Amino acid sequence: MIVQGTRVPLKRWQQAAVAVGSAVGALLDPRRADLIGALGETTGKAAFESVLERMKRSPEGREVLSERPRVVSSQVGHAWDLPENTFGAAYARFMGSRNFLPDDRPPVRFMETDELAYVATRAREVHDFWHTLFGLHTNLIGESALKVIEFRQMYLPMCLMSVVGGTVRFNEKQRRLFFQHYFPWANTAGTKCTDLMCIYYEKHFNEDLEDVRRKWGIIPAPAAP
Hints:
- The protein is mostly helical.
- The protein has helices spanning about 10-30, 35-45, 45-55, 60-65, 75, 85-95, 115-125, 125-135, 140-155, 155-170, 170-190, 210-215.
- The protein starts with 11 loop residues before the first helix and ends in a 9-residue tail after the last helix.
């Protein structure tokens, strides 16, 4: 499947301008997924190239690259019909409880090749699979913790910048909770688990959630003290 969206070629100075503008805009309004996405694309070329090479070395990663699955309603809608103990059903509950739709992600626009554009799209679209697997909320602390895991997995500069931006918005109690409790866990969890970009998640939807967590070395988020 071809990645949807029109690629926009940028010169180096244009990439820098988009990156700076997106960073400032995302800091002012963290809900702007389009700005966060643009920041990731314009600062993450080297990281996405590294992820692409890892996927090419992995049998399951190569299958993802070959078939190019998309996390859109037409392809993952069957998750809502799976038994409640399965990974797919847990994902459907996560999405449904928040009124999220798989199709809500903004398109990738600033990657130089179709292959890199797909890797960036895949990284963006599996975000909610990772929320489900690690049992993380979508509040500011949960999103910041997941960004730590994403950084450990992909080394995207945007992830680190998002953590910094998120912690700036914490109150004192949230900041203490994050750095004493969630940050150490996320750093370990992101390092100990398998290469999460090399998993064809959709083919594991019908497996037991706890089984796939064990298989992939997932350490679920601890309960807040």
